Amino acid sequence: MVSVGVIGSGAWGTTLALLLARKGIPTTLWDHQPARAQQMQQQRENSLFLPHFPFPDAIQVTANIAEAVQQKDLVLLVTPSQKLRDNLRLLAPYISPQTILVSASKGIELNTLQRMTEIVAAELPRSRGRIAALSGPNLSREVAEGKPTAAVVASEQLDIADQARMILTGNTFRVYTSHDVIGVELGGALKNIIAIGAGVNDGLGYGENAKAAIITRGLVEISRLGVAAGAHALTFSGLAGMGDLVASCASSLSRNQQLGQRLAGGESLSTILQSTRSVAEGVTTTQAALQLAARYQVEMPIAKQLSLVLFEDLNPHQAVTELMMRDPKGELEGFI
Ligand SMILES: NC(=O)c1ccc[n+]([C@@H]2O[C@H](COP(=O)([O-])OP(=O)(O)OC[C@H]3O[C@@H](n4cnc5c(N)ncnc54)[C@H](O)[C@@H]3O)[C@@H](O)[C@H]2O)c1
Ligand SMILES: O=P(O)(O)OC[C@H](O)CO
């Protein structure tokens, strides 16, 4: 029997631990706060981030990072993206180079502009060759409820993707494999920008035609940057591209979508961030993506307007007007 560690006990880390433990896989869930770890271990649920889903006996919660990673076949990395590097430094002394590391976080690190698996490779060089990324349309609550879900796990080493797939797959969680790590990670990260935009659209009451346009042109922006960064174009038609984009833009369960709705309602970014514990990765990803877009000299007009709304108090109505009034162009012009 394999055993798994999960670094990060927010909604998604907890959901992945539940999926594994329901299959009987011994799973150690790590929280960075000892009091929270103790509370979850005693209450046998994550009342803060994923209430009402009782923990099977196979889940053990700890704040001891050595316990969470030692002698594990696979470790899932599920912290907010901007916290991943610090946590890798904490676990580095204890992890075996044999352990498979799967990033399930969706973001790009500010300043370095690195993807999550790039950070893992940089901080844990002995683990290179055993690193993968998990992504897809995976709203945690639906997954925890056991609703049918598909995901994709990508690794440059297909045997590693395959081993991760076998461990993660369940009756209600179908996992595909891919070798396009760049595409799978950038698809998962960049869709959060567009999900905020879709939330703004909903909050403004602009309707379904406008939302379909945001999704479609958003996918063009994601693909354009992704391909410039080395991704395979077809990945953006897949689960980590179109799939996750549709789920996040359409669902009120998406925290990024919710954040967009609140922006449209007139709340400032700082007010929204202060009032929520959950991470909306699209905020930092908007900044990082625009820097990457400048590096690769690609246009991201939706991300650009969203950054003005997020960080420079541009009125959301005005941002939409700016997008509508851009110079005319052919639909396929500069597509990828
Ligand atoms: N929730 C989902 O549906 C979902 C699905 C797929 C991917 N993801 C991704 O998973 C990642 C984690 O999101 P989530 O939804 O599980 O989190 P969350 O928003 O539910 O909770 C945030 C978590 O981060 C933890 N945290 C805060 N600071 C930390 C630190 N310094 N070190 C370690 N942990 C810290 C908090 O304790 C909490 O457990 C994100 O990148 C997100 O995009 C989320
Ligand atoms: O709640 P969000 O917006 O972070 O989205 C969660 C997942 O990424 C959906 O696949």
Automatic annotation (TrEMBL):
Keyword Hydrolase among record annotations: no
Short name of any one Pfam family annotated for the protein: NAD_Gly3P_dh_C
Binding-site positions, NAD(+): G8, S9, G10, A11, W12, G13, R255
GO annotation terms (biological process): carbohydrate metabolic process; glycerol-3-phosphate biosynthetic process; glycerol-3-phosphate catabolic process; glycerophospholipid metabolic process; phospholipid biosynthetic process
Localization terms from the record: Cytoplasm
SUPFAM superfamilies xref list: 6-phosphogluconate dehydrogenase C-terminal domain-like, NAD(P)-binding Rossmann-fold domains
Active site: K191 (proton acceptor)
Assigned GO CC terms: cytosol
Amino-acid positions noted as binding sn-glycerol 3-phosphate in the UniProt annotation, renumbered to this chain: K106, G136, K191, D244, S254, R255, N256
The family this protein is said to belong to: Belongs to the NAD-dependent glycerol-3-phosphate dehydrogenase family.
Protein task: Catalyzes the reduction of the glycolytic intermediate dihydroxyacetone phosphate (DHAP) to sn-glycerol 3-phosphate (G3P), the key precursor for phospholipid synthesis.
Identification of the protein by name: Glycerol-3-phosphate dehydrogenase [NAD(P)+]
Taxonomic source organism: Dictyobacter arantiisoli
Taxonomic path: Bacteria, Bacillati, Chloroflexota, Ktedonobacteria, Ktedonobacterales
